[in-house]
């Protein structure tokens, strides 16, 4: 940059400023100077706006920081409140469970109290119906266990007497049902198990006296005596006695009989005890079948005992014939009829208990 000579009357110009790449040697004109001022003004305005924008951005950042801090605090507070809410919910659930258990206990106590009040408020007729029904059911179970209808008949008679003493018209149908069930039970054919057991025990006691089929028959007691020999000489008398003794021994050695079962004749004499014990076991099987209410099995066991009796024992003996007759009677008394029931009476009692 060169300076002007001092003799020049013009004032010294200001130092040129290099703006926007304009070389200092060039002197700007008035238009370019105005452009420069405009550019400077624009730059100042831009700078001012930048400063204001920076300040506004700073304020926004501060506001965002404050909001973020507030949000973090709110989140922490929300988590604390959530934990409190969970604790309150658990406490509420525990209290609800306790209340439900207490409510169920109260409901149970209420139902028990209602049942007690209903039982206390029953009338005399209702108590009578309940007692009669329970006694009849118990008697029916006893009849099924013993096989005898007597417990059931006795319970029906007692029930009829109690209802008759009550003198209630609505129980008349119950008395009619009891009368019909009583007639049906009396007319039913039921096996007399106790009587049959006594008869079988009697037959078992007689088995020891039964003669087996291969036993040598004893001489009959009522055999007519031989006529006495006339008075003769001693030699003739001795001869007659010797002859009679020989004939008696011959009759004991030789026996003529009919054999229907060859197996019975092959039994050794010492096996007669086993035959009798086997016969007792068959009769005890009949007894057990009757006790177990197996009538078909009892009849089969009686048939087997009768066959063994005719096969191994002497059918011509009166004792064997008597035992065979008793076995036939037992066979005829074992029936397959079911025990009677009192369903009609129980239905009438249920109707009366319902108040219909």
UniProtKB/TrEMBL annotation:
InterPro entries linked: HemX
Highest taxon of the lineage: Bacteria
Pfam families, per the entry: HemX
Designated name of the protein: Uroporphyrinogen-III C-methyltransferase
Phylogenetic classification of the source organism: Bacteria, Pseudomonadati, Pseudomonadota, Betaproteobacteria, Burkholderiales
């Amino acid at each position: 940059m060169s300076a002007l000579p001092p003799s020049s009357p013009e004032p010294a110009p200001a130092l040129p400023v290099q703006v926007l790449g304009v070389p200092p040697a060039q002197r700007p004109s008035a238009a370019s100077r105005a452009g420069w001022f405009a550019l400077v003004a624009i730059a100042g305005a831009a700078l001012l706006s930048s400063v204001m924008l920076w300040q506004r951005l700073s304020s926004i950042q501060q506001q965002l920081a404050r909001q973020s801090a507030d949000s973090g605090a709110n989140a922490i507070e929300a988590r604390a409140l959530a934990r409190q809410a969970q604790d309150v919910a658990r406490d509420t659930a525990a209290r609800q469970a306790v209340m439900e258990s207490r409510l169920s206990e109260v409901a149970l106590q209420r139902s028990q109290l209602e049942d007690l009040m209903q039982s206390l408020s029953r009338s005399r007729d209702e108590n009578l119906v309940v007692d009669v029904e329970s006694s009849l059911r118990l008697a029916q179970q006893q009849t099924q266990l013993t096989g005898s209808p007597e417990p059931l008949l006795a319970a029906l008679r007692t029930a009829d007497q109690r209802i008759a003493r009550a003198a209630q018209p609505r129980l008349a149908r119950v008395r009619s049902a009891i009368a019909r069930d009583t007639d049906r039970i009396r007319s039913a054919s039921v096996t007399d198990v106790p009587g049959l057991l006594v008869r079988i025990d009697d037959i078992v006691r007689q088995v020891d006296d039964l003669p087996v089929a291969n036993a040598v028959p004893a001489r009959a007691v009522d055999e007519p005596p031989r006529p006495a020999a006339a008075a003769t000489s001693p030699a003739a008398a001795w001869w007659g006695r010797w002859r009679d003794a020989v004939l008696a021994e011959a009759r004991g050695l030789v026996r003529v009989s009919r054999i229907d079962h060859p197996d019975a004749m092959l039994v050794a004499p010492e096996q007669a005890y086993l035959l009798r014990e086997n016969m007792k076991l068959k009769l005890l099987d009949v007894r057990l079948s009757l006790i177990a209410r197996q009538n078909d099995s009892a009849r089969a066991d009686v048939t087997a005992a009768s066959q063994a009796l005719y096969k191994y024992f002497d059918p011509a003996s009166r004792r064997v014939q008597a035992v065979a007759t008793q076995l036939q009677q037992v066979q005829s008394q074992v029936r397959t009829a079911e025990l009677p029931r009192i369903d009609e009476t129980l239905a009438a009692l249920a109707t009366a208990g319902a108040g219909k």
